[in-house]
Amino acid sequence: MKLVINGKDVETSGSQSVTELLKEQKVKWPDMVSVELNGQIIKRDSFSSTTLGEGDKVEFLYFMGGGRGAN
User: Exposed end of the chain (fewer CB within 10 Å): N or C?
Assistant: First the structure.
């Protein structure tokens, strides 16, 4: 199945859930990633029940903290 993941065309192993895709794509820190599917943020508790389809657009989003504050 073809998906667009983070702006790139990717061939995956077939119909799968968001959780399975995270594993297949070897996403670092899967517990800390947010997933956007076709422009909508998916709730973490829905990852295993959300099935992906041909041509879906998936974004893996990491929110990072840190840096220096203003002095």
Answer: C
Q: Where are the alpha helices (DSSP H) in the chain?
A: 18-24
Q: What's the chain's average pLDDT? A: 90
Length in residues, the chain: 71
Give backbone dihedrals phi and psi of 69, rounded to 5 degrees, phi first. Answer: -80, 170
pTM of the model: 0.83
64, 32 Cβ separation under 8 angstroms: no
- CATH number at 2-62: 3.10.20.30
Q: How do residues 26-50 score in pLDDT, each as one tens digit? A: 998 888 899 999 999 999 999 999 9
Lookup result for tokens 């998916």: 42
3-state secondary structure of 61: strand
